[in-house]
Amino acid sequence: MGLSDKFPSFSFELQIIQAQNIESIKSKGNSLFARLYLPIGNNKRIQINTKKVSSKATMPFWNESFGLECSCPQEFLETLKKESMVLELRQSKKRIWGSHLMGKGEISLKNIFKSPNLIFKEWVKMDLESMSNCEEGMLRVPEVQVEIKIRVTSMEKEEINLNKWDKCGSPKHLT
């Protein structure tokens, strides 16, 4: 077995469910979407955008899932635990390209790794990017509900499980 075969398998599933308290954001009549930046090491990150939903909805609902799987050294996982994901609530511009940042929140990967069964389901508070984005007299902070599941498995454990399966009647042993 080569060195790369001993790297753990890392699986990340993100579900962006819905937003609330967006009535405090001045609507310019354009659609809303969420954008997530997932750190991948070396000051690099992956950008993920949800589909666009109406900004006129009281509680915009995405219920959209994204998944990522990779093999990586244990050191990378330890480094990842010190990072944070950035979640943004954005409003598309009337022009074809571009969007306007309405609010931003952070999710510590350390909190996800510490959560029961590595499942994190929370309302992420959005810090408003500008008070000019806020309707006068509105004090409720916009939030986006997310569910994040992480699975880390050792490749050696997976190989042991495959070997057990082979011994339990796979075609290899039926000859």
From TrEMBL:
Among PROSITE patterns, the record links this protein to: C2
Which stretches make up the C2 domain? 1-124
Recorded hits in Pfam families, A to Z, give: C2
Q: Name the source's superkingdom.
A: Eukaryota
Q: What is this protein called?
A: C2 domain-containing protein
